[in-house]
Amino acid sequence: MNHPKNIVVYSFMLLIFFASCWNYTTKYHDDKTGNLVVKEWFSRNHIKSVKIFMDKSLKNYIYTSYNNDGSMKDSARYINDTVEGLRIYYEEGPGLMHSEYYVHGIMNGIHKAEYKSGITSFEGYRKNNLMVGEWKFHFINGNPITYEYYDSSGVMKYFKKYDDNGNIVMTEGTGLILVRADQTSIKTYELLKGIVEVAIPPGSETDLTIEEITGSQYQNPKINASLKNPRFEWEWKFADPGKKILRFSLKITDNKTSEWEVSTFEQIIYVKDDN
What we know:
Helices cover 7% and strands 61% of the residues. It has one helix at 4-23, and strands at residues 26-30, 36-43, 46-53, 61-66, 72-79, 82-91, 96-103, 106-107, 109-114, 120-127, 130-138, 144-150, 156-162, 168-173, 176-181, 185-187, 192-198, 204-214, 217-227, 231-236, 242-254, 260-272. The strands form three sheets. Strands 1, 2, 3, 4, 5, 6, 7, 8, 9, 10, 11, 12, 13 and 14 form a 14-stranded antiparallel β-sheet that branches. Strands 16-22-21-18-19 form a five-stranded mixed β-sheet, with no helix packed on it. It has a three-stranded antiparallel β-sheet with strand order 15-17-20, with no helix packed on it. It is elongated and about 80 Å long.
């Protein structure tokens, strides 16, 4: 049977132990500029998080948290308690290190994740949290999983899926994402400008042709371009007045099989005599 005195001593020792642990749980101090720094600890030698305040409002700060092994878990800057700028965090399950960019708490900018090996798991662009433009996903060996293209409203317009060996197993949508002319009514010899957005899936060649057509006949001049960037700026001039048709043709050829897909778009331009 335990003596009451022993129980009291044991309880007192436990109280001292937990109190000593609590001393290392949270600590506060000022840095050289006088700003408050708050540190949390798992234990005496294992940091849990660091919050560095940037002013006296305590609403603007840099927060970094850590895993038990000392590796970084999450790091970001906060303005008015809202994440701003670059955020980096570690996703433990798949072992991915993410990097994101925020403007007033909303993702705007490159969104990327890497495996521990440094190989990119996925990379794309966010606009107001939406996925826009090219998104590329990769297996841990670097081979492509999917190639995806989203328009400015976040709607997927093109999708291509690959197997482990980089062979295409599925394609949906058309590679000619967007054709835009700055004007649809111009004068003769006036410079017409525009842009084209296209899909450029990995392991493929993407070729664009722009030409004027009259009826079923193609007319010179024409533009032929092998594209490496999904956005292409084009220019055109018309010598004669009338209703003109520009045909945009995109050809995507798989390098492994030489199989190809074609998408086209026709833009009507009304040309007036400059006289």
